[in-house]
Structure formats: structure tokens, C-alpha cells
Design goal:
single chain, 343 residues, alpha+beta, 4-stranded antiparallel beta sheet, 7 helices, 17 strands, globular
């Protein structure tokens, strides 16, 4: 009996998605819960796992297709035998190396990167779902190697923020389609400027007491909690206290009504290779400094890998964005609707 692989039910705020990449092809074996295909929405990248162990019998959609909730993506035959065993082959010099059953699961792009640089894939730690090795893992491995050329280190740093395209010395252009996330962010920011009366104000704050506290407890904090004590935890807690004192800033507008929120969910703007995302810290008034720092670090890692969940990007009563990491002295961020303010 054949089993259909379908697009999961998408939230009301997400109309459709784009099929990014198939990790298995027709005739290949697949294990239950193994990632089959990635679908990009305007918020996150969804991994679609295999519902059952078997062999890919038919693929209904190709890379780049727009898909909606419930559409059939592929058909799995749980009783069939794979035409060709799905094994990873890397090369060391000119001699091929046979993959074993212990070889980690990877995408074709990752296998090509490993082969091109004569790497031992078993030495690379995977941070993807189920220990899967992603491209960033390979780049990180090469960057940390003592033999890594400067070009590889530069590529690794670039991938952590904004992709860089080397155009050389020629007068040429390259057209690259926007990700659905970037398009959605642009749409929402323009909408915010058109529908909200935005006022930006700058105030000087004496940060010396915070810097003194951080210097005094930084090492002890890191040893105890295994995370660095940054400035963001101070900013988040300060915002939570300020929002308690000024509830109107924690409110949102809905038509002719003002909705006052009795909770403090702060969005943290995070730059990723796919675009800007704003995951939400829930109930920050009850979070510890360590909890805030660990969660923000986790947001950054999973934003880079496209692993944030839809529920983590929904809601929020206030936002914080840090332009200082890009060298900014002052900036004028745009309010994230339907919120009333952003720091």
C-alpha cells in the first residue's frame, strides 16, 4: 500500500510555500522521520519528514514549485526495494572512499563541498535535525582548520550574516530572486510606514553601571551558565520593567481599538542568510539573565540554519533590534506591526 507525503497544514498567516530542495529521488530508500524535502515559507523553512520507511515511488512536485497545505509531494512504497542504495561517496585526492552505514546524511550540495575540499566527512559534527550535516557545518569545520585558507574563513563569516557575491572586475550584473522571507519582510515594513505615524527619538543612557556589573560577574556567569553575559539580557529586562510602567507602549492597535497586553513578549531581530527574522522571547519578566542569553543564542543559531518554528515568530508586544553589530552609531528602525514601539 502506497503512502502519500503531503504538505503539512500551514497556519492561517502562511498561504503557501516554495519547494526548496529534494533530499531523496525516485528509487531511493528512505527511513521513517528522515527529512525528504525543504519547503520555504515567508517565515521559516519547513523540513518534511518521511511518514514511513520505504522507497520513493513517485515525486509530484519539483524544486521551485509553489505548494499549499495538503498537496501531495511524493509517494512512498513501504514494501519496495531501493534501485540503488543511498550511500555517500567522498573523495580523498583521486581515490574514492566508500561510505559506510555510519556516514552522516547530507544533501548533494554538502557532499559536493566535502568532495571538492578533500574532507573526511566523519570528522564533521552535524548541527541539523537528527545530527544531519549542513553546509554551514562544513564551512565551520574548514574555518577552524589550521590549514584553512583566508577565502574559506571569509566565506564562513559572510554566511553568518549577509551573503556576498564576488563579481570580479567585470561590469556585469547578477539577478537573484528574493527569498519569500525577504519579500515578506519588505512588504510588512512598507505597510508599517504607510499605516503608522512613526516617531524616532534618541536618548543618552549612562551604561557605566551595566558595564561595571558585566565586567565583575562575566567570568563567573559564563562558568556557571555556559553562556556569555552580553548586553542584550540587560536591555531585555530593562524593557520589561519599562513596559510595566508604561502599558500603552506594550499595547497594539486593532482598528479603532487599543489592545493592552497583560504579558511581555519581546521580539529580538536576528539577521540570517535568508533575511531578517524576529523570534519572540515569551514572558520575559519571569526570565533570568542566563535564560535570556541562552535563548537569544539559540535563536541566532537556528535562524542561520532555518530551523525556527512558526510559533516562535508569531506574536510579540515589543521588539528590540541591535544596529550596533553592523557598526551603526544611530539608527531608525521600523515598527513591527501591530506593535506600537521598537528599541
Amino acid at each position: 500500500m502506497s503512502i502519500e507525503v503531503k504538505v503539512p497544514e500551514l497556519p492561517e498567516s502562511v498561504a503557501d510555500g516554495v519547494l526548496l530542495e529534494w533530499h531523496k529521488q525516485v528509487g531511493e530508500a528512505v527511513s521513517r522521520d528522515e527529512n525528504l524535502v525543504d519547503i520555504e515559507t515567508d517565515k521559516v523553512v519547513l523540513e518534511i519528514p518521511a511518514p514511513e520507511t520505504g522507497v520513493i515511488q513517485k515525486v509530484m512536485k519539483k524544486n521551485g514549485d509553489v505548494v499549499t497545505s495538503g498537496e501531495v509531494l511524493a509517494v512512498i512504497d513501504p514494501e519496495a526495494t531501493a534501485v540503488v542504495p543511498y550511500k555517500i561517496t567522498t573523495s580523498t585526492g583521486n581515490a574514492p572512499v566508500k561510505a559506510t552505514d555510519a556516514t552522516p546524511t547530507t544533501s548533494p550540495a554538502v557532499r559536493q563541498l566535502v568532495a571538492d575540499n578533500n574532507l573526511d566527512i566523519t570528522q564533521i559534527t552535524g548541527t541539523g535535525k537528527g545530527g544531519r550535516i549542513i553546509k554551514q557545518d562544513v564551512l565551520d569545520y574548514m574555518a577552524n582548520s589550521s590549514k584553512a585558507p583566508d577565502a574559506i574563513k571569509a566565506e564562513t563569516m559572510a554566511m553568518s550574516s549577509i551573503p556576498v557575491i564576488d563579481m570580479g572586475d567585470e561590469r556585469r550584473e547578477e539577478r537573484v530572486p528574493m527569498t519569500r522571507l525577504r519579500a515578506r519582510v519588505a512588504e510588512r515594513l512598507v505597510q508599517s510606514q504607510h499605516t503608522a505615524a512613526i516617531l524616532t527619538t534618541f536618548n543618552e543612557v549612562n551604561m557605566q553601571p551595566v558595564m561595571d556589573l558585566r565586567a565583575k560577574y562575566r567570568d563567573r556567569f559564563e562558568r556557571k551558565h555556559e553562556v556569555k553575559l552580553g548586553f542584550m539580557s540587560f536591555f531585555v529586562r530593562a524593557c520589561a520593567e519599562a513596559l510595566k510602567q508604561f502599558p500603552i507602549v506594550n499595547a497594539s492597535v486593532d482598528g479603532n481599538d487599543i489592545i493592552y497586553h497583560g504579558y511581555y513578549d519581546i521580539g529580538i531581530a536576528v539577521s540570517s542568510p535568508r533575511g531578517l527574522v524576529v523570534p519572540i522571547l515569551r514572558d520575559v519578566e519571569s526570565m533570568s539573565f542566563a535564560g535570556i542569553e541562552k535563548t537569544i543564542r539559540d535563536f541566532g543559531t537556528r535562524a542561520r540554519d532555518g530551523k525556527l518554528g512558526l510559533d516562535e515568530l508569531s506574536g510579540g508586544t515589543f521588539s528590540i533590534t541591535n544596529g550596533g553589530i553592523f557598526g551603526s552609531m544611530l539608527s531608525t528602525p521600523i515598527i513591527n506591526p501591530p506593535q506600537s514601539a521598537i528599541l
